[in-house]
Amino acid sequence: MKAMLIGEVVGAKLNPSFAELLGFAGRLGAEVVGLVMGDTSDRPSFAGKLVLAAGPEYAPQAHKAMVQELVAAEKPDLVVLVHSAYGWDLAPRLAVALSAPQISEVKEVTDGVYQVGVCNGKLVRQLAPNPGLTILTLQAGAFAPAQESGSPTVENKTLPSLPGPGLVGYKSKPKTGVDLSKAERIVSVGRGIGKKENIELARKLAAVLKAELGSSRPVVDAGWIDPSHQVGSTGTTVAPKLYLACGISGAVQHLAGMKKSELIIAVNKDKEAPIGEVARYFVVADLMEFLPALTEALQ
Amino acid sequence: MKILVCIKQVADLESRFVVPAGATWFDEADLSFRINEYDEYAIEEAVRLKESLPESELVVLTLGPPRAAEALKKALAMGADRAIHLNDPKAQDRDSFSVAQAIAGAVKDQGFDLIFTGMQSQDRGSGQVGLLLSELLGINGVSCVVGFAKTEGGIQVERELDGGLRAEVALGLPALVTCQLGLNQPRYPTLPNIMKAKKKPLETIELGPQTAPRVKAQGLSLPPKRGAAEFIEGDNATKVAKLVAILKEKKLVG
Ligand SMILES: Cc1cc2nc3c(=O)[nH]c(=O)nc-3n(C[C@H](O)[C@H](O)[C@H](O)COP(=O)(O)OP(=O)(O)OC[C@H]3O[C@@H](n4cnc5c(N)ncnc54)[C@H](O)[C@@H]3O)c2cc1C
Ligand SMILES: Nc1ncnc2c1ncn2[C@@H]1O[C@H](COP(=O)(O)O)[C@@H](O)[C@H]1O
């Protein structure tokens, strides 16, 4: 078994998630060919072969061509990327170019059958690709990173210059508003809060608990709260003593930002909401009734 | 400008899903269906573009079972001009590649300048169909767009990366973009527009039998109960009292 692992370079840095790809390959006992495209001086440590392709870090047509060239030479069984903005953007292009089955956001594998979450993590699907080369993206955080060890043999290449989408530059979200990363207590609201006005119910509870107010993404997207409150993979990562998740279903991108909290309590009317996977206590309740009553009892 | 939006109708995710023994998809009886959330952003962006370029035509397309026609009607009420329904009662048996292939077959000769899709479907969540389609059509494609602008001869978009970073990407037409949450504020169809939509053309194309999928579904199950959540249930007063006791025990309140 041979796995080609494709690293992600952003701002000339190799994303540390490359270690998760190595961890996955290690679990399968696969021989590793690493491929890092873009200009970075970061070098992962592992035993195997590392191909460094100099050139732009986001140029999907050039990256696709490089993978095609390398797949022809190395004949891997798997091409593996992290399911991130880089991975989910490149993988389907590879699936077409290489006529290979693609499986997205894999969170577990046994005997060539891959498990992926569907319906917001409420169900798990078991998928088997046709024989031959398979393209995989791995759910961020699903596979334990490998310990760094060994040094690969390095081969240097240069990306071809091809027409297609091109990177103009990067832009950071302006950092204003609250800084949740150091908060000790967070009361967080999700779409289950229903409408903007109802956020007051959570704000009052946060005040009596001396907590900051957090939120899931849809609450920000709807314009109900300032983006600085968003917890998750595209928001802030938090690890408070108390995280009270109110009307938040527990999508993986949300969990990525808060699962390290010491005590997670969920309030949700749906007992099957996946937030139950990380919560210590799960209050099955309607927020409209429960939040005001809890606030009053604590006053 | 000819604009296409691809949308999928998905089950309401707050549903209680039941998987019959041996089945590879959930039982759809008694569930309600809606437009995939990501695709609402795609429709909105396409409608805004059409409004800014009055000579444009905006087509909305779905591949799905008969129920999916409802999603097309809503998209027409949001501002699309006409709709195409690739009808397949067994649509859920298709893998993402087969969906993209069928859509590519239906649109390849129609000369679309811009195609909008969602970045992922909420039920399947593969995040594949958009870019598979652009690759099959041989046009530019870019995923996870949270900012979109038409430029001279092309488009410039913002792609969302992790932790608040965005990449600005420029591409020429024809092009496909996959839309991420927060790209815009999708509108609600107004009653007059719902009435008007009833007169807009909705073409149904029956799809032939499916070819063998590249990826076979072997099963569908509830996730293993990993957590050890203790459920707090009962009447409101009981639940409040229990939670207060827990917060006190953990010394989170005085
Ligand atoms: C690339 C990418 C990045 C993302 N990044 C993030 C991120 O950083 N952060 C993030 O949060 N999301 C992120 N998302 C979105 C994520 O996938 C989910 O869509 C989102 O987290 C869902 O938010 P929610 O739980 O508030 O809403 P929903 O999933 O709609 O859940 C609402 C919950 O409220 C419950 N509810 C409804 N009414 C009531 C009531 N009256 N009382 C009690 N409970 C009620 C429901 O049972 C349900 O469980 C990202 C998605 C993608 C694709
Ligand atoms: N059956 C379908 N019909 C039309 N468009 C679809 C279909 N399935 C997926 N799409 C489009 O492709 C996007 C990504 O879907 P997926 O690859 O399933 O995550 C969706 O947001 C839709 O825009």
Automatic annotation (TrEMBL), chain A:
GO terms for biological process: fatty acid beta-oxidation using acyl-CoA dehydrogenase. Its cofactor is FAD. Transmembrane segments: none annotated. Residues 2-171 form the Electron transfer flavoprotein alpha/beta-subunit N-terminal domain. It comes from the Bacteria. Binds 1 FAD per dimer. Gene3D superfamilies: HUPs (3.40.50.620), TPP-binding domain (3.40.50.1220). Keywords: Electron transport, FAD, Flavoprotein, Transport. Belongs to the ETF alpha-subunit/FixB family. This is Electron transfer flavoprotein subunit alpha. It comes from Candidatus Lambdaproteobacteria bacterium RIFOXYD2_FULL_56_26.
From TrEMBL, chain B:
GO terms for molecular function: electron transfer activity. It holds the Pfam family ETF. It comes from the Bacteria. Residues 23-214 form the Electron transfer flavoprotein alpha/beta-subunit N-terminal domain. CDD domains: ETF_beta (cd01714). Belongs to the ETF beta-subunit/FixA family. This is Electron transfer flavoprotein subunit beta. It comes from Candidatus Lambdaproteobacteria bacterium RIFOXYD2_FULL_56_26.
